[in-house]
Amino acid sequence: MELFRKKSLDYMIRQASGKKSLQKALGAFDLTMLGVGAVIGTGIFVLTGVVAAKNAGPAIILSFVFSGLACAFAALCYAEFASMIPASGSAYTYSYTTFGELFAWILGWDLILEYGLACSVVASGWSAYFQELVGGFGIHLPALLSGAFDPSKGSYVDIMAVAIVFLLSAVLMTGVKESSRINDIMVIIKIGVVLLFIVVGIFYVRPSNWSPFMPFGFSGVMQGAATAFLAYIGFDAVSSASEEVKNPQRDMPIGILSSLAICMILYIAVSAVLTGMIPYTKLNVGDPVAFALRFVHQNWVAGFVSLGAILGITTVLFVMMYGQTRLFFAISRDGLLPKGISKLTHKTKTPTRSIILTWLMATVFSAVIPLNQLAELTNIGTLFAFIVVSLGVIVLRHTRPDIKRNFRVPFVPFIPVLAVLACGYLMVNLSKITWIGFLIWFAIGLIIYFTYGYRHSLLGSAEEQTPEPSRVTSEN
């Protein structure tokens, strides 16, 4: 039964307020900016073209609707957990108190895949837009440094992806308060760029480009939804900030749900305009938004959008890297990874070693692995996490009805069940090779847990045995 030992709420509150806790500096606005920063970017500026050309055609609009609804159900479940548990680690931490240590490790290892590969996906997209921008000024990188490993194209390493990962790692080193201010500025610019594209592009929409609307059938729409799902995972990273929020019980649900609502509206609008401007068959490019503007000879706008997109995608990468660093910190603090990883700086309470580890992981993946393979592996990890968190809401309602919940998922168990079914369906629509990669990662994680994590677990040591919750008040 030690494999399923659980953290109590008291234990997590002590962790989140003790010597090894993070600095509390964020509010509801900061969380919303983190959410919009993470959500708006990857889907619009990187994946829309690939999904439209290969999976859904103009029906990519429906792909974003379906994946957005699946995320909305899961977001409600995350909001309930975030209002109860003000500790770093997101779904990893939630499952520790609901299902026990083994499940927590499995989910934490899964989230390492999600965040690590998401960082790499976005870094690859950032590199494509940057090279497009400087190419307009006659500056071109050597082929061998211009993309991920692909000898047929003469590319071996994506040097610009490596550079941006290094730069943002340095920003994260400055502390959460300072780096969140930089994020706020870039998010405002990004929203302006998205609105500019919609306003300019709508005058070039040709309804004939929406026909046939569903060229790959409904199965193509759902495959597109499974891939486009990556675009919405920002609220998952927002939940990683719980420990650094001044009033997490109130602000976490606001940040999670408001950012998702804003972004879903923008995604649907951009998808409609993009596929109306240009035939979907031409959108299999790394920078579809700028490409569509060049297609209608709005080159000056395309250049401006490319510049704005670079800043916008930077915020996505920043939040994904932030989530990864806090995940490494939380798992290490629990002893399931080497404790040195969770060491904090004295002045800014920054987990510098977690940041360095995140930098190394994102650098390797973004430098050498092609974009489409990265995206699907990221999605399967995210979908699995959403399923576990949604089930966790149902379980904790039955096992701990006394816990105070500042936000409650409505219509339990129906909403969590819908989240499980929607996310499960999207998982089924991912490719076989993605499932094989996921299972291999899963097996590696179990080996690491049984050879290291189980024996070094802080919760398993005699001096860290957890008392029953006593300070958590009843809802009634």
TrEMBL record:
One of its GO terms (molecular function) is amino acid transmembrane transporter activity. One of its GO terms (cellular component) is membrane. It is found in: Membrane. The keyword tRNA-binding does not apply. This is Amino acid permease. The lineage of its organism: Bacteria, Bacillati, Bacillota, Bacilli, Bacillales. Keywords: Membrane, Transmembrane, Transmembrane helix, Transport. Its main location: membrane. It is a multi-pass membrane protein.
